Automatic annotation (TrEMBL), chain A:
Its main location: mitochondrion. The keyword Magnesium does not apply. GO terms for cellular component: mitochondrial inner membrane; respiratory chain complex I. Belongs to the complex I NDUFA13 subunit family. InterPro entries: GRIM-19. Accessory subunit of the mitochondrial membrane respiratory chain NADH dehydrogenase (Complex I), that is believed not to be involved in catalysis. Complex I functions in the transfer of electrons from NADH to the respiratory chain. The immediate electron acceptor for the enzyme is believed to be ubiquinone. Involved in the interferon/all-trans-retinoic acid (IFN/RA) induced cell death. This apoptotic activity is inhibited by interaction with viral IRF1. Prevents the transactivation of STAT3 target genes. Complex I functions in the transfer of electrons from NADH to the respiratory chain. Accessory subunit of the mitochondrial membrane respiratory chain NADH dehydrogenase (Complex I), that is believed not to be involved in catalysis. It comes from Trichogramma kaykai. The lineage of its organism: Eukaryota, Metazoa, Ecdysozoa, Arthropoda, Hexapoda. This is NADH dehydrogenase [ubiquinone] 1 alpha subcomplex subunit 13.
TrEMBL record, chain B:
This is NADH dehydrogenase [ubiquinone] 1 alpha subcomplex subunit 8. Residues 138-175 are annotated as: Disordered. PANTHER family: NADH DEHYDROGENASE [UBIQUINONE] 1 ALPHA SUBCOMPLEX SUBUNIT 8, NADH-UBIQUINONE OXIDOREDUCTASE. Its main location: mitochondrion. The keyword Magnesium does not apply. It is found in: Mitochondrion inner membrane. Keywords: Disulfide bond, Electron transport, Membrane, Mitochondrion, Mitochondrion inner membrane, Repeat, Respiratory chain, Transport. PROSITE patterns: CHCH. Belongs to the complex I NDUFA8 subunit family.
Length: 155, 175
């Protein structure tokens, strides 16, 4: 026969401790916190001041380095511009000779004009910076285009 | 081209002078001392460029600038070759922008060499960004503005104003 009843206990029954149970803590207990209002504000102020001082000095150094780079560039610019100007004038000379060579079989052609009709009538000897396409007029098409678009290929 | 034969151009022989065949980091390494060494000629050339607005008139000044720079580099090569090579190498390989900040040690060595041999101190970090007054005997180019014979006489402030006709409307003005 199969039964589910447990055998009766023989031990003494569990009883409350002497003097009764301790009273239940039913009041709200606040968590212990480290960051109080004063400490938080103090930390904020101190870290802001320290960070501002560090930022000031770091930024000063960065600005000084920028100025130093700019200064170096300004110092070498006259030399580079002088060289560039000479190369530019040489190229103007070469271009004029190239046109003379190109149109030598046409007796009516005069260099720098369209059949003796000049672009500038009153200012013969005044310098005008030529347009890019005019300056590169006798160059290869690839060179002209590459130099125009070079800045898009670089970095 | 719109350049006729009446347009004066210097010939190629006149424009051919020994140029400075150096790469950018080398120039960058020498820039401050170079600018200080050739300061007057650089200012003269840039003044010419701004005043004349014509590269043909500044060829002589440009040649002076290049000759001065070449002279400076020859002196560096003669006296401070090793120090300068070290410094330029550092400038070249320390950063992508050829900046001066990572190379202060080699820079101080190079500066000392330049001070000993060329007798020139390194200018401050922002020396070439400062505005300067350039003393020169160069004549100021004449601006030939057209003069119109029938132009109106320009007004002057010396002429007294007429009395106001309708009371004091001129309370807030000068008179």
């Amino acid at each position: 026969m199969y039964t589910t009843t447990t055998p009766p206990k023989t031990n003494p029954q569990d009883m409350p401790p002497k003097g009764g149970y301790e009273p239940l803590t039913w009041k709200r207990q606040k968590l212990k916190t480290f960051f109080t209002v004063k400490k938080t504000l103090g930390l904020y102020v101190i870290s802001t001041i320290a960070g501002s001082i560090g930022y000031f000095y770091a930024m000063r150094d960065v600005k000084r380095e920028e100025i130093e780079m700019r200064s170096a560039r300004q110092a070498m610019l006259p030399m580079l511009i002088a060289e560039r100007d000479r190369a530019f004038l040489k190229q103007l000379n070469i271009n004029r000779e190239e046109e003379r060579e190109l149109m030598k079989n046409d007796p009516e052609w005069e260099v720098g004009t369209y059949y003796r009709e000049p672009v500038y009538i009153t200012v013969d000897n005044q310098f005008h910076e030529p347009r890019y396409q005019e300056f590169m007029g006798h160059a290869e098409y690839f060179d002209v285009t590459y130099r125009m678009l070079r800045r898009h290929f670089m970095s | 081209m719109v350049l006729t034969d009446k347009f004066d151009l210097p010939t190629i022989e006149e424009l051919t002078v020994p140029e400075i065949n150096l790469t950018f980091p080398t120039l960058q390494a020498a820039a401050h001392h170079l600018g200080k060494y050739c300061e007057w000629k650089n200012h003269e050339f840039m003044l010419c460029k701004v005043e004349e607005e014509d590269p043909r008139k500044c060829v002589k000044e440009g040649k002076d600038v290049t000759a001065c720079s070449l002279e400076f580099f020859q002196k560096i090569k003669k006296h401070c070759r090793k120090e300068f090579d070290q410094y330029a190498n550092c400038i070249d390989k320390s950063s992508g922008s050829s900046s001066f900040a990572p190379c202060r040690k080699t820079q101080s060595v190079f500066d000392k060499c330049v001070l000993d041999n060329l007798g020139q101190e390194r200018p401050g970090y922002g020396y070439f960004c400062e505005a300067k007054v350039h003393e020169t005997s160069r004549p100021k180019p004449k601006y030939n503005a057209p003069e119109f014979p029938n132009a109106a006489v320009p007004m002057t402030t010396d002429e007294p104003l007429l009395p106001p006709r309708y009371g004091s409307r001129r309370v807030l003005s000068a008179n």
